[in-house]
Write a structure and sequence with these properties.
99 residues, mainly alpha
């Protein structure tokens, strides 16, 4: 949204990550899928978005949560950093047009 000024209604994590790679390569580091375990964790977090709300039998183990929390924190930190940088650019551009 910071880059396009449009709110994407996309909830598919695969599509979202592919679309944001255009703005930062750092997103590729969040959910690498080089091993079966990395792939499993990515599929788990994708499923959790829907199943966590609608499937009363959906379970995530403490071990999986412990493995996912650092990834989610990294995603948050990267998002915050690139959005803040972009917002600063808007401020700079706005100041230039006033001169």
């Amino acid at each position: 949204m910071t880059y396009t000024q449009q709110n994407s209604k996309q909830h598919n994590l695969t599509k979202l990550l592919n679309s944001v790679k255009a703005y930062s390569n750092e997103f590729s580091k969040v959910f690498p899928q080089n091993t079966p375990e990395e792939k499993r964790l990515f599929e788990l977090i994708k499923a959790a978005y829907v199943n966590g709300r609608y499937d009363p039998d959906f379970v995530v183990t403490k071990e999986d949560i412990d493995a996912l929390v650092p990834k989610v924190e990294l995603l948050r930190d990267i998002t915050k950093q690139i959005c803040e940088e972009r917002i600063k650019e808007y401020g700079y551009l706005n100041n230039e047009t006033k001169i």
